[in-house]
């Protein structure tokens, strides 16, 4: 296994940075029950890039995403979304930041069952009292390929269609960055491929920035870059990944889980 210094996890592009953290540390419990989930992590995510975060169970990959997205509080260190430092924000500021600057796609689709697909897509903007950019919204809707299903409620959509609605919701407000936590975990392979292809297309053709936590080497192969975590630290990274290369690298961290994948 090749060890990469923490500060080498800077983006490979010379463009702007969508999100970054410095010396990020997250500790749960104290004394004998203390668990260090993140251990002085420094990393940056360039705009217009698709990054996958991988690692064995307990490596800190989901914790890293949650802290960087403002869903969990860091024990130490600093995080930024664009030029906004999260560690200086209060509860109201964090709520506004998550609403206006971040898009989320989770394994559970988190759609409101009583709303139509279109109403679910525009819900965050409706709550914020903002009108969507009609041209951009039309582009997003056409990209996810659900225009004929906009009036349908979640129960009338397949799992793959529901997740595409969730992806469209994340994109509709043109956020600084989208964080996706195991977005294909509840989908069959065909629907999962559709969602991953859409996320990649949103980066390639729409200039979006996506950071995705996954345990699946095939899902990671859709990304431009893969970061590998172990014991709360970034220990390796890979540019232009393929599923086979990712699987081989994962065997160095957790042979059992890599074999299952």
Poorly predicted runs are 1-14
Number of helices: 9
- Gyration radius, to the nearest Å? 18 Å
Largest β sheet strand count, sense and barrel closure: 6 strands, mixed
Indicate the structural class.
alpha/beta
Give the overall average pLDDT: 86
Form type: globular
Total discrete domains:
1
Compute the separation of the termini in Å: 19 Å
The percentage of residues in β strands lies in: 15-25%
What is the topology, as strand order, of the major beta sheet?
A: 6-7-8-3-9-10
Named CATH topology: Rossmann fold
Give the SSE order as H and E letters.
EEEHEEHEHHHEHEHEEHH
| Strand elements, count | 10
Which homologous superfamily in CATH is the superfamily? Answer: P-loop containing nucleotide triphosphate hydrolases
| CATH architecture classification name | 3-Layer(aba) Sandwich
Q: What are the defining features of this structure?
A:
261 residues; alpha/beta; Rossmann fold; six-stranded mixed beta sheet; 9 helices; globular; disordered N terminus
Walk me through this protein's architecture.
The protein is of the alpha/beta class. The chain has one domain (6-111, 158-260): P-loop containing nucleotide triphosphate hydrolases (Rossmann fold, 3-Layer(aba) Sandwich). The chain is 36% helix and 25% strand. The chain has helices at residues 61-68, 91-101, 117-128, 134-144, 159-172, 189-206, 217-220, 243-251, 255-260, and strands at residues 17-28, 35-46, 50-54, 76-81, 84-85, 102-106, 177-181, 210-213, 225-230, 233-239. The strands form 2 sheets. Strands 6-7-8-3-9-10 form a 6-stranded mixed sheet, sandwiched between helices. Helix 3 runs parallel beside helix 5 (159-172), helix 4 (134-144) runs antiparallel to helix 5 and helix 5 (159-172) packs parallel to helix 6.
